[in-house]
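just leaving the lab so this will be short. what follows is a protein written twice so to speak, once as letters and once as structure tokens for the fold. can you read through it and tell me how you think this chain folds. anything you notice is useful, everything is just below:
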Amino acid sequence: MKLVSVILFFAVVASGLSKDTPISQAEADHSIRKVCIHLKQVLGLPDAKVTVSTSSAPLNREQFIDRLSVLFSYIKPKIRQNVHPLSLEIKGLASGLSEPREKTLRSLVNFGLVSPDSLLVKTNQTRFTPREFGQILGGFLARAMDITMVLDPKYSPELMPD
């Protein structure tokens, strides 16, 4: 239930800002810090080590990938043991990324945390509107909750004892 309110919060914030104004690094970091606070509560994680930028410069693609990578590292201890990355062939991966960031992006896509059709994958976009940022971050959070959720045998028929 908390996750739904977090996603709705980001949707409202993103829709309230101008559609043409790119999201700044400081705004993105503020949102990611809020996400870490909620992930800590929901998943029982330790405090996140997130650095918050005060830069008003627009968030670019590589910085966005770096921030998602930090979130992925943060939730990694809580990922269920039976969740394995897929070997998806990403068609139309936009160029312009360094090799380590491209590898990170492929890993995020293979875990389903980033859609292979998202702007982060398909374009060399150097600026993201709050709406675009919110869509990518919201998709990340939705999948993160899916791969970290532990099913309760009491309510899951396939896990119930015979």
User: Anything to note?
Assistant: The chain has two domains: 1-60+128-152, 86-125. The chain has six helices and no strands. The two ends are 31 Å apart (CA to CA).
